[in-house]
Amino acid sequence: MSSSLFEEIQTPPSGDIAVRRVTINVNGEPRTADIEPRLLLADLLRQGLQLTGTHKGCDTTNCGACTVLFDGRPIKSCTMLAAQAEGHDVQTVEGLGTASELDPIQEGFKQEHGLQCGFCTPGMMMSAKALLERNPNPTEDEIRWALSGNLCRCTGYQNIVKAVLWAAEKMRSN
Fold first, then answer.
1. Exposed, middle or buried by CB within 10 Å (0-12, 13-18, 19+), for 171?
2. pTM of the predicted model as reported, rounded to 2 decimal places
């Protein structure tokens, strides 16, 4: 009987399987795990650390649902090994806002109806966060370019772009 990935992460593998201890700064907090070197960052985040906002849609970097910030830059966590994140900062959608206050990006998606099914939303938000940290006053074209690695199968992107513009305006006014 094979064990689930969750069990593999929670219980160090036995026998001849190599294990590596990694410490990654996730959402501002150091997190340590014993992992197999082949474990993907997205799987560590989702199953190992229970940060399920990072979605897996394609495992090929095409959809962007797994986008997280790696040292402030958006990356596709479905094709990055967790071991490569050792000593780095990773921010997931759970790191936006707090339990009592939404991040302006989250608020923008709410106010401008920038989501439908919500599957792509975490990746879109993380790409938008990276953009707004680099460019607090982006044009629509710059937003579309920054989000071009994230696919949404439900919307025509217009409300997503409006959500990012809304967030940018709120961030500039604060």
1. middle
2. 0.89
